[in-house]
Design brief:
The protein is an alpha/beta fold. 27% of the residues lie in helices and 21% in strands. It has helices spanning 6-20, 34-47, 86-96, 134-146, 275-289, 319-328, 332-347, 352-366, 389-398, 405-411, 420-423, 479-490; strands at 56-63, 69-73, 78-79, 104-109, 112-114, 117-119, 122-125, 151-152, 156-159, 200-206, 216-220, 227-230, 233-235, 243-246, 252-256, 258-260, 266-271, 293-294, 298-300, 309-315, 387-388, 440-446, 449-457, 463-471. The strands form 7 sheets. A 5-stranded antiparallel sheet has the order 2-1-24-23-22, sandwiched between helices. A 5-stranded mixed sheet has the order 19-9-7-4-20, covered by helices on one side. The model is unreliable at 1-30, 496-504 and 506-522 (pLDDT under 50).
């Protein structure tokens, strides 16, 4: 690749612009304009909030048309970015894989077929698709049956060898492991619904018809891969307090607590231990439903022979379409799959190391100084990720020149837009302000960590790139402070004819949910 130092070039343009306006009152580098001074004072006041006492803040705002820095507070300070890390992963994926990239899941065999009998193994080969639903495995099974296969004499082999077998990020905390946002990463997996949290199962606990009986527990999708240990009870009345937890190291899910007769079922997303086996279980059940009997056992992790012949195939949505659930819902699993997929496509190694190396090379090509940051995973779940706000703003400024920018910009959460796959993690924030429908930005949250980085169009038409990183605070949340800064930027006005108006990028139509597929609207969005 040729390095394209867009942000550095824009900085030079800013110097030229500053010199050109030096004769105007208040427009010299030594003397900021009144509007810029007011903006500084406003943001400084917001950051002086007592909730940030003893905390760290890194905030940078840049006019993308000129490269002029409008605000910089500790912009070179490396802070934990949480899910703002996905800005690096998503842009690199679009550039290195391409918006049209798709994941293939296929069924192959080396066996001979005669009169409905397949003599040999059936291979289910995973291509990394994080959007595979039980319905997709059912469609694959239907294709196998349509090929005339009725009995498979060999094994069902689940091939997940496109990626390595490191399932969890090395820096992830152990107590996150049962929860949907820290699912194990495999090239062969299942998502329970169109949030596409691959490697998870939804466990439902419905009240029994009478008090004293255990709740009725079911899963989405139905699977025997997860064992339910139901210790909960149904009560006549009282507050529902169902807890659903998977035990470490296996697939026993313990259900405890109580639920009242007549209450709505309690549901929760739970990760599975070894998602390859989960996918194989769902597919094997689908084969059975379609009249295909596998006589052998299920074998995990063996590669498909090169001489195997195709039987069935499923292709995922395009990467450009995947950006919507990925970024709107801040899907950690998508980020990690894309990291390994980048490694596999570019170097033949489906590992975090290979993927992160390629991501680093790409973001350096945009002008980010990779010597000043550290990326340890694709999603931001690692607390060893460290990125300065100024480097995020450099990336945000540079990618506006990419041919896929409009798709990516539209996939970012949009402030104050209540539709889940439009507003995403910002859907309930900044509503009724100048930032609503205006701010396109990536959120980020860990305990004591919050971030918001993206774009806002100012009151005088400037497209501003900004990054707000807040670390080491002790209060429950500081997101209202981020919102105040974003609203201030939306209301910023330098003055008439100081810069050309920049129209926000056109927003492509949001992809529709496939017909017949239900969406989940229950799970709270993390960020």
């Amino acid at each position: 690749m040729h390095r394209r130092h867009f942000p550095r070039a824009l900085a030079l343009l800013a110097l030229v612009a500053t010199a050109a306006t030096a004769g105007a009152p208040g427009a010299t580098a030594e003397s900021p304009t009144p509007a810029t001074t007011r903006l500084h004072d406003t943001i400084d006041t917001i950051l002086a909030d007592t909730r940030l006492a003893g905390a760290q803040a890194s905030v940078v705002v840049v006019d993308t048309s000129t490269g002029q820095t409008l605000y910089d507070r500790n912009g070179d300070r490396r802070l934990v970015p949480a899910s703002n890390t996905k800005l690096l992963t998503s842009t690199a994926a679009l550039e290195l894989l391409g918006p049209g990239h798709r994941f293939a899941t296929d069924v192959q065999t080396t066996g001979k077929r005669r009169a409905g009998l397949l003599s040999g193994n059936l291979y289910l080969r995973g291509g990394g698709d994080p959007t595979m639903l039980a319905a997709d495995y059912d469609a694959l099974a239907a294709q196998v049956a349509a090929e005339g296969v009725r009995v498979v004499t060999g094994n069902l082999v689940a091939d997940d060898t496109r990626y390595d077998h490191t399932r969890l990020g090395p820096d992830w905390t152990w107590d996150d492991e049962p929860y949907y946002y820290a699912a194990q990463v495999s090239a062969l997996t299942v998502a329970p619904d169109t949030d596409y949290d691959a490697g998870t199962v939804i466990v439902h606990a419905a009240p029994a018809d009478r008090a004293g009986a255990p709740p009725v527990v079911s899963t989405t999708p139905p699977t025997g891969y997860v064992h339910i240990d139901n210790r909960a009870k149904t009560v006549t009345e009282g507050e529902t307090s169902i807890s659903i937890e998977r035990e470490h190291g296996g697939n026993t899910v313990v259900v405890t607590g109580q639920i009242a007769v007549g209450d709505e079922p309690a549901s929760d997303w739970v990760t599975v231990w070894e998602p390859t086996g989960y996918a194989a279980d769902v597919f094997r059940a689908a084969l059975h439903r379609h009249g295909v009997r596998v006589l052998g056992r299920t074998v995990l992790g063996q590669p498909t022979p090169e001489t195997a012949q195709p039987v069935a195939r499923h292709d995922s949505m395009s990467l450009g379409e995947l950006m919507t659930p990925f970024l709107k819902l801040s899907n950690n699993g998508h980020a990690e799959v894309l990291t390994k997929e980048i490694g596999r496509v570019l170097s033949g190694s489906g590992t975090w190391t290979a993927g992160l190396t390629a991501i680093s090379e790409y973001v350096a090509d945009t002008g980010m100084d990779t010597g000043r940051l550290r990326q340890r995973d694709g999603s931001g779940l690692s607390r060893r990720n460290l990125v300065p706000a100024a480097e995020f703003v450099d990336l945000l400024s540079a990618v506006r020149a990419e041919p896929w920018f409009a798709t990516w910009y539209a996939a970012l959460p949009i402030a104050g837009q209540p539709e889940r796959f439009v507003g995403g993690t910002l859907r309930s924030r900044m509503a009724g302000t100048a930032a609503a429908g205006n701010v396109h930005a990536k959120t980020g949250s860990l305990t004591g960590v919050s971030g918001l980085s993206g774009y806002v169009t100012s009151a005088d038409g400037r497209l501003l790139a900004f990054s707000i990183l807040l670390n080491n605070y002790l209060t429950a949340s500081v997101k209202s402070l981020e919102d105040q800064i974003a609203v201030a930027l939306a209301g910023y006005r330098e003055g008439a004819a100081t810069t050309a108006r920049v129209a926000p990028p056109a927003v492509p139509e949001t992809p529709r949910t496939p017909e017949g597929v239900e969406c989940s609207w229950v799970k709270p969005i993390t960020c």
